[in-house]
Design a protein that fits this description.
Elements (H helix, E strand, L loop, with lengths): L1 H23 L7 H13 L7 E5 H7 L1 H40 L6 H51 L7 E5 L15 H12 L15 H5 L2
Parallel strand pairs: 1-2
Helix pairs in contact: 3-6, 4-5
Length: 222
């Protein structure tokens, strides 16, 4: 409910700013009918650009080199976790198969020895499950941390970007979640992406020098 109220208030504020901005450039006050007509004319005039813009987040994430490097870091973490789990799973499967073979061939010296081996395999299975859960939680935390780092970086850079732009509001848009329709002139995704990449530099995966040695977080602070 709080999120819905925030969206409603944000939309109302945005509309109010747009109307005030347009009214500021209309004719002298005192003629409400004429001013209303001027407002409609200004709003429909393709040469008039209001102090708002939006960024397509999907496109930004695909083309922002810092986001690419963070994604590569996440992929490496995921691959490392998967490799560790695969190795653990192979050990478990090998132990279970060996236990089954010995059991079928009556290779255990005693029933007690067979039960001990069975308990050992059950512990291995439990350790595998605990390892999978732990690595999943660690990956989720790392993903959350990098997402926050990316979000904070973009917000800080947008303040710098907007110093000579004068936008009153810059929206984020993913697909059509936030903005159902907007004139293309308000889409500043390409301009923002170029600005961010200029500040960050080339992505590690596409850099010809020092590949694999650049730390995304450290580099983005420059």
């Amino acid at each position: 409910m709080k999120n819905n109220n925030a969206y409603i208030l944000g939309a109302i504020l945005a509309v109010a700013i747009l109307i005030l901005y347009v009214l500021h450039f209309t004719s002298a006050p005192g003629k409400s009918g004429a001013r209303k007509g001027d407002l409609i004319t200004k709003m429909n005039d393709s040469s008039v650009t209001l102090p708002v813009a939006y960024v397509n987040v999907d496109s930004l994430l695909m083309n922002y080199n810092f986001a690419k490097d963070l994604n590569e870091a996440l992929m490496r973490t995921e691959e490392s976790s998967r490799a560790s789990l695969t190795q653990k799973e192979r050990q478990l499967n090998a132990a279970a198969q060996e236990f089954q073979r010995k059991l079928q061939n009556n290779a255990f010296l005693s029933q007690e020895r067979a039960e001990q081996e069975q308990q050992r395999i059950l512990r291995m299975q439990q350790e595998y499950q605990q390892m999978a859960e732990r690595l999943g939680q660690e990956f989720a935390l790392e993903q959350q941390k990098l997402n926050m780092e990316l979000s904070d970086t973009v917000k800080v850079r947008l303040v710098e970007f907007n110093k000579d732009k004068g936008y009153q509001i810059i929206y984020s848009n993913t697909g059509s979640d936030n903005i159902l329709f907007a004139d293309d002139k308000y889409d500043i995704t390409k301009e923002v992406t170029e600005f961010l990449n200029k500040k960050y530099g080339p992505a590690t995966s596409t850099s010809n020098t020092g590949a694999g040695t650049k730390t995304p977080a450290a580099t983005e602070t420059k």
